[in-house]
Amino acid sequence: MKSLLLCLTYVLLGGLAFWVPDVLLRTLKSGILSKRDIWILTFALPLFVIAVHTLLRRSRNKVEKGPSIALYMCLGIWILGPTAMVISASFSHEGFSNSDNLMLILFGTFFPPFTYVMSTYDGSLLALLLTTILLPALHLIYEMNSWVLPPPIFRAIRKWLGL
Asked: Taking a C-beta distance cutoff of 8 angstroms, is the pair 88, 45 a contact?
């Protein structure tokens, strides 16, 4: 139960660390970003995520093995992406302000690869790809002892495969 709660926390913090600065900047700019703003986001968003990852990694108990912070944060970015982009689009009178987008929101939430498509229109694709490459690299560098699948699920899969 504790490990599930940790996984959900990392998913939520990863999504928030990546998407909140994007939503805030769009709020300040009334939904319209210049090329300069997009370039700022391209490098600022991965830096925010790396900073949050570093804080979480340093605060974790060194003895106890737990879930991979980096990989669950990456999952959170992809899962929360469509919802965050629709929220940020609401400031330019689209998104939640347009009731036709309800199906788009529901589809995007249950189909995380839709984050890729929406981020091309949002202007955050390069930041998304850069972060998606950086987080698994951080896992390989700092969290090789952390698990990706919870141990009971991993044991069940190994048993099912006969390993």
From this structure: no
By the 8 A CB rule, do 51 and 131 touch?
no
CA distance 24 to 30: 10
Domains in the chain, number? 1
pLDDT, one tens digit per residue, over 14-59 is 999 999 998 888 888 776 778 888 899 999 999 999 999 999 999 8
Q: What confidence tens digit (pLDDT) does each residue in 103-119 have?
A: 666 666 667 778 888 88
What is the rounded CA–CA span in Å between residue 87 and residue 18?
Answer: 14
pTM, two decimals, is 0.85
Q: Which domain, by its residues, includes 62?
A: 2-161
